[in-house]
Amino acid sequence: MSALGALVVAAAAGLDAAVGEPPNRLHPVAWFGRVVALADREWANPAVAGAAVAVVLPLAAAGVVAGVVLAVGYLTPWLSVVAAVLSLFAATSRRMLLALARDVVAASDRDLAAAREDLLGLAGRDASALSPAQVRSAAVESAAENLADGLVAPLLAFVVALPFGIAAGAGAAAWVKAVNTLDSMLGYPAKRHGTASARLDDAAMWVPARLSAGLLAFAGGRPDALGRAREWLAGVPSPNSGWPMGALAAAVDVRLEKPGVYVLNPDAPLPPTPIAERALAVVDRAGWLAVATAAALALAVPTPAEVLALP
């Protein structure tokens, strides 16, 4: 059993709960974003260039992270554990995104202009004409989607690669975070060089999005939320984001919508402030459930020595 893997998961989650995100100048994801920005330009052959970017950059990020975790382990094995904790901490995000969503919801009634501005840190949509309820909807939608992107996906990748060691787990989590960062920066219809990144993110997020929907249904005490969410997916452009958003809409019985694009749970009202706060509390509980589940799975997976000993 990989007790070290469980320790890494628990310590990374504890670090996030204690300090949130490191400042941008110290954040590896911000460093990676600067590299991606260099590739965000016009290319003579955007399809080929975009495919190369989608393949090479996440693999490079994974290789660097796994290499650092392995290298410091030659000094002392516990340094590799510390490096793995820091890398998983950097690859996951829970506290900061939830705090920002709560700030948006709290400001939506008393200072709509500030709420609209703060929303830009969560959702890539034009907030200038959104009503207070629509701003709250966007904050809740983003929290649900970020549960999958920012927490469940890297934790799942870490656990899946853990039988090959904590360095492999850390590298896998970094790969998923890199893929998601590429999609957030390049995955727009107007950027042909971002098509491959968007499709890769769709594939990488397929399982985490559905697992996140299940966690939200469980955290909200509504096991029927998954079935209800399925009814509303047709209008959501993404093959994945509709699952956690729809499950949360069903779990708290609220309407979530992106005007002109999709409506989830159309027969319910848009979220008043107390319901939006309750929805974010469900996301918070689901996040801790994800951490606990990942730690339990890490305890259950075989160690590298056990894998090598298999007949």
Automatic annotation (TrEMBL):
Gene Ontology molecular-function annotations: ABC-type vitamin B12 transporter activity
Recorded topology in the membrane: Multi-pass membrane protein
Subcellular location: Cell membrane
GO terms for cellular component: plasma membrane
This protein's pathway: Cofactor biosynthesis; adenosylcobalamin biosynthesis
Highest taxon in the source lineage: Archaea
Principal localisation: membrane
UniProt entry keywords in alphabetical sequence: Cell membrane, Cobalamin biosynthesis, Membrane, Transmembrane, Transmembrane helix
InterPro entries: Cobalamin_biosynth_CobD/CbiB
Membrane spanning residue stretches: 44-65, 72-91, 155-176
GO biological process, one term: cobalamin biosynthetic process
Role, per record: Converts cobyric acid to cobinamide by the addition of aminopropanol on the F carboxylic group.
Similarity-based family: Belongs to the CobD/CbiB family.
Protein name: Probable cobalamin biosynthesis protein CobD
